[in-house]
Amino acid sequence: xxxSCRLHLPLLSRGSAFALLCLLLRTxxxxxxxxxxxxSHNATCLRAQWQMNFTIEYETLNHxxxxxxxxxxxxxxxxxxDCGTNDNISQIKVQFGSGFFWTVNFIRENSAYFIDVISFxxxxxxxxxxxxxxxxxxxxxxxxxxxxxxxxxxxxxCRSVMTVTERNVxxxxxxxxxxxxxxxxxxxxxxxxxDEDESIVSTTAVTTMPVPTAKPIPKERPYPGTYSVTxxxxxxxxxxxxxxxxxxxxxxxxxxxxxxxxxxxxxxCHKESATLRLNxxxxxYLEFLFAVxxxxxxxxxxxxxxxxxxxxxxxxxxxxxxxxxxxxxxxxYMCNKEDTIAVSxxxxxxxxxxxxxxxxxxxxxxxxxxxxxxxxDSILIPVIVGAGLAxxxxxxxxxxxxxxxxxxxxxxxx
Length: 414
Ligand SMILES: *[C@@H]1O[C@H](CO)[C@@H](O)[C@H](O)[C@H]1NC(C)=O
Ligand SMILES: *[C@@H]1O[C@H](CO)[C@@H](O)[C@H](O)[C@H]1NC(C)=O
Ligand SMILES: *[C@@H]1O[C@H](CO)[C@@H](O)[C@H](O)[C@H]1NC(C)=O
Ligand SMILES: *[C@@H]1O[C@H](CO)[C@@H](O)[C@H](O)[C@H]1NC(C)=O
Ligand SMILES: *[C@@H]1O[C@H](CO)[C@@H](O)[C@H](O)[C@H]1NC(C)=O
Ligand SMILES: *[C@@H]1O[C@H](CO)[C@@H](O)[C@H](O)[C@H]1NC(C)=O
Ligand SMILES: *[C@@H]1O[C@H](CO)[C@@H](O)[C@H](O)[C@H]1NC(C)=O
Ligand SMILES: *[C@@H]1O[C@H](CO)[C@@H](O)[C@H](O)[C@H]1NC(C)=O
Ligand SMILES: *[C@@H]1O[C@H](CO)[C@@H](O)[C@H](O)[C@H]1NC(C)=O
Ligand SMILES: *[C@@H]1O[C@H](CO)[C@@H](O)[C@H](O)[C@H]1NC(C)=O
Ligand SMILES: *[C@@H]1O[C@H](CO)[C@@H](O)[C@H](O)[C@H]1NC(C)=O
Ligand SMILES: *[C@@H]1O[C@H](CO)[C@@H](O)[C@H](O)[C@H]1NC(C)=O
Known about the structure:
The protein is mainly β. It has two domains: 33-199, Porin; 225-374, Porin. Helices cover 13% and strands 46% of the residues. The chain is built from two helices and 25 strands. It has helices spanning 14-31, 380-413; strands at 33-38, 44-59, 65-71, 89-96, 100-109, 112-123, 138-144, 149-151, 155-158, 162-166, 169-180, 191-193, 225-231, 234-249, 252-257, 264-269, 273-279, 285-293, 297-308, 314-319, 324-328, 332-335, 339-344, 347-357, 369-371. The strands form four sheets. Strands 1, 2, 3, 9, 10, 11 and 12 form a seven-stranded mixed beta sheet that branches. The longest helix is centred in the last third of the chain and has 34 residues, at 380-413. The N and C termini lie far apart (93 Å). The structure holds 2-acetamido-2-deoxy-beta-D-glucopyranose (12 copies). One 2-acetamido-2-deoxy-beta-D-glucopyranose (NAG) binds at residues 216, 246, 248, 253, 255, 348, 350.
């Protein structure tokens, strides 16, 4: 794991390191928008911290197009923000400069809340921001987010940049931490991560934000990815799976969905063994080792993982004595239901929509599947029928023996 970019404290005196830290903290604080709202009973109902900027494209006097990036100054006003009267709609309003208005609505539906609508308006008659605008006047844009549903009593967190372009405005949002509809005046300790933070890189169990460390987060199903390994120009290993890592470190358990869109894979195929290694842009990886047994079946023999938390600490786990995903060579192994591979006491992998074929892939396609017992409800039917048949045979045998005894006894008495 690369350590080259880490600050080497012994090189700095304690005092200068502290000064540097203060400087970093100060620059971070100045930019962050920060707001806590009370409801009519003086109970905290919403809190939010985030950063944003806007790039606006407008037409200039000489008919050209120009981009201007608008930063939110630290003296922005939040007036008009409130939690609503019915406890089902909350709104944050931000005003700054001459004529910039930004609002976001949160709506509550049953046991979740949604970031609903964001609107942004600006006034091109502001000569500081748009000195050469051809047309002067107010412009408003609105878009619906609505897809982000956060369980009630959890806070939403997104460190990654979320970018949305709506008409002439490109919105950037990052370092977001928000909880709306806070229950019972109690700020949550459970975090709900945005998809963008969920790639392997951002293992976020250990957090540096001023909140207690997160408890286990109920997660949505991981998005399945298809991974393949080629050898001599032909696909030799295929795997389709949604992967959720369950990591326990320093007594904190965190769930991490692997985002296939930001994950690469490579590997090796041999006659009796195969590997599939998933990695992201840093030196982190998750490796699956397959082997052959009895010459005619394959199975998952080992898993290795190596990750780095945001705070720089490492997490590694390995097990080379597994016996999962067992199927005949020449077929694939399939399990649509959630299944779990217990790699170690501190690491397990939850798999979803799994299909894997580590050997004898023909023409880049899966061969017939052997399904896991979890999927196969129909396995019960042969068992019941079989048990029934066995019972029937037993009854016939017993009846036969009794019959013979009787007749034998009969002979005796005769
Ligand atoms: C936001 O404000 C709260 C209270 O007003 C304060 O405790 C917190 O440190 C602030 N956070 C940032 C990042 O400025
Ligand atoms: C919110 O309510 C608390 C008491 O619960 C009070 O101390 C605080 O000043 C209130 N904040 C605002 C912005 O009214
Ligand atoms: C809420 O808190 C403010 C400031 O602390 C106080 O002036 C006001 O009376 C309180 N309102 C209620 C309803 O408790
Ligand atoms: C606006 O925010 C984006 C995302 O954080 C950042 O990359 C960009 O440099 C910012 N623009 C300016 C002019 O600061
Ligand atoms: C928005 O951008 C288009 C070009 O993409 C430009 O023609 C138009 O004037 C711009 N609108 C405003 C209100 O600046
Ligand atoms: C303004 O920014 C947008 C988004 O980044 C880009 O698509 C557009 O080409 C830029 N326009 C100009 C005139 O630079
Ligand atoms: C915010 O600060 C700027 C200068 O930095 C000043 O021109 C502006 O009037 C201030 N706005 C408010 C609402 O205080
Ligand atoms: C919020 O509650 C009010 C009254 O309880 C209701 O009329 C309104 O439709 C609700 N809004 C939403 C978005 O659920
Ligand atoms: C809030 O308090 C009520 C009653 O005191 C309780 O029933 C409810 O479970 C609490 N909700 C949360 C999220 O703590
Ligand atoms: C994560 O692992 C812990 C400890 O092994 C376990 O108690 C918990 O149920 C697991 N959670 C999920 C969602 O797999
Ligand atoms: C991955 O990309 C696909 C297609 O571009 C998209 O539908 C999906 O939402 C993305 N998944 C994640 C977890 O970002
Ligand atoms: C995975 O690692 C390889 C080299 O080992 C590298 O080329 C590739 O860029 C990495 N994947 C991602 C998504 O960065």
